[in-house]
Amino acid sequence: MAGATAAECAAICCCCPCTVMNLLVLAVYKVPAGLCKKAMNKKKRQIAKKRSKSLLHERSSNASASAGGGHAVTTLEEQLVAHTKKEKEAATAAEKGEGGNGCR
């Protein structure tokens, strides 16, 4: 009988502090970390949704501007070529706007 009582006492003395510590870690670290992670994921989804809407809007405006008014789907390569052309045009316009002062 004395051995069983001592074992129960040892189990309680060992497990209670561990349980309290687990609850403390849960309350102080895990719950706030989970809430922050959830908020960051929600923000990422909102940004991705906003980007996809702007891309869809850009594609639909490109399709309506194309000849015949059909649904022209631009490929990534075509978009890259168009973007590169815009950048080159902007660079040449900036060079022309600087004049001949010799500074670059």
From TrEMBL:
Compositionally biased, Basic and acidic residues: which spans? 84-98
The superkingdom of the source organism is Eukaryota
Q: Where is this region: Disordered?
A: 47-104
Q: What is this protein called?
A: Pollen preferential protein
Query: What's the source species for this entry?
Result: Quillaja saponaria (Soap bark tree)
